[in-house]
Amino acid sequence: MAADLRIRNESTRKRMYRSDVLTRLANRILEAESIWEPSEVSILFCDDPFMTELNKDYRNKNSTTDVLSFEQENMPGQTPQVLGDIIISLETVESNCYGDTDTMREEVRMLVCHGLLHLLGYDHGTEEEKTIMHQKQAEYLGVSEDAAWDLGPKKKRTPLNSQGERKARGR
Fold it and tell me: Which of 30, 54, 142, 168 could cross-link with 35 by S-S, CB 3.0 to 4.6 Å?
């Protein structure tokens, strides 16, 4: 089993992720979810104007968001299995993380995990679904459950400490 991540950065923000780290994360998730077929995922990094257009077109929301995912239909026997597309706004990531490079990298990992779980059929529309997704993100990212669900546009995040908890940020 191997995840083939097709990563393209159309954002003006650079060096906010490492492809090898994201590939290891995707492989860990696919293995834990018992996905053994070769699988392909496209990841597009963009800025807020493009993300706003997608959010408007597909979710009827005229605002940006941090991550969107789009599942793909596969033909029977198709190899590799194309799981879908994950779109991440690095502009929103930068805003959410106060521009802190380490925190931005953590956030990108979290968003890739979140998007991949959506591609695998997980959702968070109900409290039960949210709890399951929350637990899986924590497990795959190696962080606390609180840290694993600290997502959302314009929600400022502080870095994690060595125990996987949010560091206090002074004023």
Answer: 30
